Amino acid sequence: MTTFTPTATPTPAAEPFWFLGGQARILIPGTATNGAITVMEFTDPENHAPPLHVHDGEDEVWTVLDGEISFFVGDHRYDLTPGEVAFGPRSVPHAYLVRSASARFAVTFAPAGIENWFAENSAPVLAGENVPAPFDIGSIVAAAEAYQLRVAGPPPTP
Predict the structure, then answer these.
(1) Residue 3 has pLDDT above 70, yes or no
(2) Strands 38-45 vs 102-110: parallel, antiparallel or unpaired
(3) What CATH number is given for 12-126+133-150 in this structure?
(4) Where are the domains of the chain?
């Protein structure tokens, strides 16, 4: 029988951090699910878009909570609004583009582990801070290799 630690209340891991110009939080760390899944929340500004990239180690499910986001998965584009969901299978290039003034979405990764890469390549959000912390994209990309994550192209544009 598998045992697990229920996670129903905020934990220190749920504190926001800056990542690639937006904010992220680890809502359910992989340590709470025996590595089965992790759930993160991202809040990004208009036109925010990470580079096209590939996760070889995990699948992703994106759930839009607020705003409008286009998800690009392989050759498909999904224009989502609150309550809508898209799936990003491992080893398929994907990216997203925030189309509204801001957007908030939850991402479930299975299996867990990639949340550590996000946390290791971030900066804490300080009280009252609303300007993203600077970041070095080269260092972030270099650190991704250890997590079976690689850049496959430029970010999508509006």
Answers:
(1) no
(2) antiparallel
(3) 2.60.120.10
(4) 12-126+133-150
